[in-house]
Amino acid sequence: MNKIIKISIGVFGILALGIGLLSFAFVQSMKADEAEVKKVKIQAQEYIKKYI
Questions:
Q1: Where are the alpha helices (DSSP H) in 1-52?
Q2: Alpha-carbon distance 17 to 5, whole Å?
Q3: How confident is the model at residue 52 (pLDDT cuts 50, 70, 90)?
C-alpha cells in the first residue's frame, strides 16, 4: 500500500511540474515584441491616413 501511494504521488508531481512548465512557456511566448509593436503601429497609422 505504501509503495502505491509513493508512485501515485510521484506521477502526480511529474504531471503538475509538466503543466506548470507548459503554462510558463505559454505565458512567455505571449509577451509582445517591442519592435513588432512599433512596426504594426506605424503600419496602422499609414493605413488610417491612406483610407480614412
A1: 2-29, 34-51
A2: 18
A3: confident
